[in-house]
Amino acid sequence: MTDPIKLYPAKPEKVYFFATCLVDLFYPDAGMAGIQLLEREGIEVLFPQGQTCCGQPAFSSGFNDQARDVVIPQLELFPGDYPIVVPAGSCGGMMRKHYPELFAGTPWQDKAENLAARTWELTDFLLNVCHIRLEDQGEPVKVAMHTSCSARREMGVAEVGPRLLGQLGQVELVEQARPAECCGFGGTFAVRHPEISEAMVADKTEALVAAGAETVVATDCGCMMNIAGYAEKNRRPLKGQHIVSFLWERTCGHGGEGKA
Amino acid sequence: MTAARTAILQRLRAGRGNQPLSPPASDFSVVRDRDWTTAEKLERFETMITSVNGEVHRVAEDRWVDHLWALMAAKGLTNLLASPETSVGREAWTRQRESGPRLRAYDSPIDDWKPELFNNVDAALTGCRGAIAETGSLILWPTVQEPRLMSLVPPVHFVVLGADQIYATFYQALAEQGWADLGMPANALLISGPSKTADIEQTLAYGVHGPRELVVLILE
Amino acid sequence: MSLAPHSQEVRHFHPRVRSALDNPQIRSNFRNAMDGLMSKRQNAFNGWDLESLRDLGAAVRLRALSRLPELLEQLEDNCSRQGIRVHWAETGEQACEIIRDICKARDARTVIKGKSMVSEEMELNHFLEAEGIEALESDLGEYIVQLAKETPSHIIMPAIHKNTAEISELMHDRTGTERSHDVAYLTAAARQQLREKFMKADVGISGVNFAVAQTGTLCLVENEGNGRLTTTVPPCHIAVTGIEKVVEHLEDVTPLLALLTRSATGQHVTTYVNMISGPRKADEFDGPEEVHLVLVDSGRSSIYQDQELMDTLRCIRCGACMNHCPVYTRVGGHAYGTTYPGPIGKILMPHLMGLENTQDLPSASTLCGACGEVCPVRIPIPKLLQRLRKESVDGDSLRPSVVRGHGVKRNWKERLAWNGFRWLFRNPRRYRLFGSLLTRFRWFTPSQVGPWTRYRTSPKPAAKTLHQMMNERTRGGAR
Is the domain covering A141-252 a CATH 1.10.1200 domain? Predict the structure, then answer.
């Protein structure tokens, strides 16, 4: 019953990139940074233009029919036997963990399981499949890390972000209180239960500020949008950035991309 | 209420339907296998029970009664509930001193002397069926000679334990003493320290309903 | 099943949440308590192969559930043979009536109670009091909650929502205890008040942590000794338990015990593990003359009808899920309005009370998974929350809903919204068109978007979508 141990594939020639709708529409620079990091590792990145959304918003609201209908056409987008890399624990978790549930006993079950088994969270893939080595070229900076709950618990990558940041010589990763606690985003939760969500994001933001971080580096744009949006509205001194944008910026000298 | 019984069982059986449920195998090694020596078990028991405010004294087998009298005097306890018929109790009875605590036996039903037991007994002495190193627990099976309330109502409970009576785990104790085959007594207990509570703001307080002190005399 | 009286209020979840969030005392009491409990739990499992232990805990509970009807019969046989009288109740109300009848047959006027969440669930105290029988809680936390005329806010630490000052004031008002912030003093005062009651009580009522079918043994786990007094001093003991608490063998108790106390309060073991297999024997001097076991269904057998939902019944009531829940930590136990609060409450109460009465609970979670991660018997709580969300909206035509009150949250607005979502995202061309319109008119997107922007700024769409960027870059993309 324990989660099966992850078996990382050998570094492939090609990967599929599933951007997620949030990255596509709001944070494309984070997606581009991820693609460029992969390419720098010598991997050809395939970006299927037919991709839209992983279906999670509908699924987690209980609308499985709608979720399935959104996913079904996309099950055909990844025909080659290459890994599918996702710059979000949340959407990655949806694909890896929940597609097999959602399609169990349906004609799409095999396809869904095949896709699920090939799905990887991007930072996990960079560290544990590409064995990426990062050369820091930026100025000294203090950052905190927020690993999303799904990246942490569904994708099992809690250690990955800190290890990647640890490769950057000029980056000080500060320790926050209760790092594993949820930021309060939870997709539609933030809208259905806004007061509880606010209490959670307020605590998270204050913990990050108290830790002395200038920027919170996040695995997921959802959490980043939540935390940075709260900080901005409440004039707290904290910026948010997707971790792959941050890694790309630090190792290439390109500034400011993918910030929230 | 046999109607309720029938209805509940029927619903359960219907629910399971024709699909037999196949649970995974139970691998008990994680709660069973400990390769501790007798000395390690003793040490572990002592550490664990002390960590929950139990008091432990290692004493020579022929000296424990003297030690008990000294402890009682130091704690200002003037009387002791002890069985004249168990091996542990009998020793206390035969070696009681004129100037020492007054002994009394639990020799009539509780209903006859409830206020006396609740209000006037300072301490009780019992044996035990062994102990568990892993959790620092004493195993008691109350008997006719040493009834259940002896280990519960008096403010101080003294327990005599042989150093060689310590099992590594609860699992081992159950298995080696053959509890399931013996048939369970009306009441069996694991006791790990004095009574306590943390119900007020998670602050520990001892002796809330049961004994405020648990003293273990380990005979070596 | 009739609704328990307090369930009338369950529906009003949001106002209670609001008032809990606005109460700094509640916020800090729970935050401090949950922080403490989380770190104690972590320390308690140091040196353990926790994942194997959780596997074993889950396996033992699954085995018990797989043979539930047979084990209940075996338990009944063995208990009866040993002199414990077994009663069955389909509803909480029936269980209350059984207990009342036992009390009346003995002319009982006063009942002393050990901690029992099932008795809270069936509101036994109110029932008995209406019948002229005094029911007094003896667990210190439950005693405090009863003095305050409240319900427990946590299943293991019932008075966790109060601090020492509040408890001191309460005990002063209700019992005349001197005001004091000395916890030892307050505890000693309660001991004295309750000892009198123990001596006089006609009946003791307790819960059960594990009921062992093989030996007919009721296991009770506690620290204070009130549970032992309750089950030993009065001449009659009534144990009341949900039907799911049965386990097969005595050895099955060992992993569950190891998991329960460490998960709940970070203790290696509780002070007392009390195993009862019969009433006082003829030659014994203490123990109750009569022991009764009341097996309560109250919705559990309907949970048993569904293999996925059945996992709910594995629960051993340790409370670790609430201790680790970021929502529970913020709002506290009373905001839920249900007997069992927190994650386990969210997946259990809809079955006991119907989704129509608990409709806000399944959605009140970020699905962060902290509960599932610590559950000692590996109940997939987030998955069950998701299932109940689906049941609430009847959201899956392939697998129709079965839970009581299913479809209660169906409404045209939300359905329309998700149909719109489907319309947009199932068609890549439509989605890409939407993306390009969104980026083109990015400065016209609203800065106020409902509850989201009450507390946050709204992100602006990007100047170009990644689709567009990749399309330009690769002149047609990978496909």
Answer: no
Q: What is residue C367's DSSP assignment?
A: -
Q: Taking CA atoms, what residue in C is nearest to B109?
A: C285
The whole-number average pLDDT for the span C233-250 is 98
Whether the per-residue pLDDT at C477 is higher than 70: the answer is no
Residue B1 has pLDDT above 60, yes or no: no
Best residue of B52, B208, B213, B216 to probe chain C, by most C CBs closer than 10 Å: B208
Residue C407 tokens, joined: 């479809």
Shortest CA distance to C156 belongs to which of C296, C36, C309?
C36
ipTM associated with this complex:
0.97
Test B12 with C68 for CB contact under 8 angstroms: yes
Report the CATH number at residue C194. 3.40.50.10420
> Which of the listed residues C238, C271, C301 is the one where a domain comes to its end?
C301
Backbone angles phi, psi at C222, to 5 degrees: -165, 165
Task: Kindly write down the DSSP assignment for every residue of A66-99, as one continuous string.
Answer: HHHHHHGGGGGS--SS--EEES-HHHHHIIIIIH
Q: Which residues of C210-240 are buried (b: 16+ CB within 10 A; e: fewer)?
A: bbbbbbbbbbbbbbbbbbbbbbbbbbbbbbb
Pick the more confident residue, C246 or C12: C246
- Test C370 with A49 for CB contact under 8 angstroms: no
- What average pLDDT does the segment C41-65 reach? 97
Chains B–C, number of C-beta pairs less than 8 Å apart: 275
Nearest to C55 among A2, A101, A199 (CB): A2
Which residues of C fall within a CB distance of 8 Å from A226? 456
- For chain C, the residue count is 479
- Answer yes or no: is C147 within a domain: yes
Average pLDDT over residues C6-15: 69
Domain spans, chain B = 36-219
* Interface check B182 vs C, CB under 8 A: no
Inspect the interface and report whether the beta carbons of C326 and A53 lie closer than 8 Å. no
Strand pairing report for A14-17 and A44-46: parallel
CATH topology of domain A14-128: Rossmann fold (3.40.50)
Based on the number of CB atoms within 10 Å of its own CB, is A206 exposed (0-12), middle (13-18) or buried (19 or more)? middle
Domain boundary among C269, C301, C333: C301
The reported pLDDT for the residue numbered B165 is 96
Domain presence at residue C396: no
In this predicted structure, what is the pLDDT of residue C450? 84
The full set of domain ranges for chain A reads: 14-128, 141-252
Quote the domain boundaries for residue C448: 412-474
Asked if residue C403 belongs to a domain, the reply is: no
Domains identified in chain C, total number? 2
pLDDT of residue C34: 97
CATH for B36-219 is 3.40.50.10420
List of residues 6+ apart from C15 with CB closer than 8 A? none
For residue B22 the two structure tokens come to 């196949």
Q: What angle do CA C142, C143, C144 make, to 5 degrees?
A: 90
Confidence tier at A4 by pLDDT (50, 70, 90): low
Asked if C369 and A149 come within 8 Å (Cβ–Cβ), the reply is: yes
Is C8 inside a domain boundary? no
